[in-house]
Amino acid sequence: MTRNIPAPFASRLADGREILFFSSDGAPLVGVDRRDLPPRPTVPTTTVRRDPTTGDSVIVAPARQERTYKPPRTMCPLDPDPAGRSSEIPAEDYEVVVFENRFPSLSTPDGWEVAAPAQPDPLRVQWSGLGRCEVVCFTSDHDGSFAGLTQRRARLVIDAWTHRTAELFARSDIEEVYCFENRGEEIGVTLTHPHGQIYGYPFRTRRTASLLRTAAQYRNEHGRDLFEAVLASEIADGDRILVRTELTTAFVPYAAKWPVEVHVYPNRHVHNLTELTDAEADDLAAVYLTLLRAFDALYEAPLPYIASWHQYRTGEPEGYLHAELFSIRRSADKLKYLAGSESGRDAFVTDKTPEAIADELRAVIG
């Protein structure tokens, strides 16, 4: 790891799940989780099935039907609870917290041996849903947002993502580490408290596999790195650049699919968050906050969005750390629905030019 990140304070919840407290102001005051929770499963509870027509991996997780769904404010499981009776976080207060998801799509029980089962039928390929799903709480403020964080707190979130990325990539049951945030009911969020998630997949996702395949083809045909070429091209063009500093660049991509879409790259080629220097992590936090605040200023109301971080193992021949931020809102009172062409054929139709999107965002960035 390029920079030194202090180890979080680790504890356990009532059912044995791990919870990690990341702090910049000393050790947190952590209580005891006193809830009467059912024991954790000792065998995998989800499966991954392979679609024989596309090769896609589909996670089958029926237990997630029982996950917490739009609870009343007084029963939010992400608010701090020093009594340890009603929340996932038994503490008076906290800065950034990461814990294992109680209703995970992927989970490897303690002591479970990772092994690929025999697959005699090529049309019925499935394996255990091993891996890890974590929740990342950005703040104890129920009514806050990532955009409302201080730069210091945003940097602490990046450090938490970095810590988890390093630990998850070190596991034999995890192939890909994905940090992301879903924000807004329009996106499908069922807990309004500011939070994101981290998935440790046991397979390479379709999106990542496609990016790496395209990058390898580009290198073979043009003799250079695809992501470096994209960044250089956007900088040279300049029409879609939103923020450019010594260490970070943010732009609307040339072929943006979404009504609001921004990509964020560190200027130095790194594979994942663990390779950033302190200066790069600080600058990335500042640029990230600028963009999220611009999102909320665009229509003078909180913008629903997905923040998606692309990471790759250190040393892989292809891959460049970057974030994609995008929203389904196409105007102050209209949403972009993924209808027949998008959902049925993965063929996006966009209602705005990428240059118009950039102009709108630059106007609110100032």
UniProtKB/TrEMBL annotation:
Keyword Cell cycle tagged: no
Pathway note: Carbohydrate metabolism; galactose metabolism
BP GO annotations: galactose catabolic process via UDP-galactose, Leloir pathway
Pfam families, A to Z: GalP_UDP_tr_C (PF02744), GalP_UDP_transf (PF01087)
Gene Ontology CC terms: cytoplasm
GO molecular function: UDP-glucose:hexose-1-phosphate uridylyltransferase activity; zinc ion binding
Domain Galactose-1-phosphate uridyl transferase N-terminal: start-end pairs: 49-204
Family of the protein in this entry: Belongs to the galactose-1-phosphate uridylyltransferase type 1 family.
Protein's name in the database: Galactose-1-phosphate uridylyltransferase
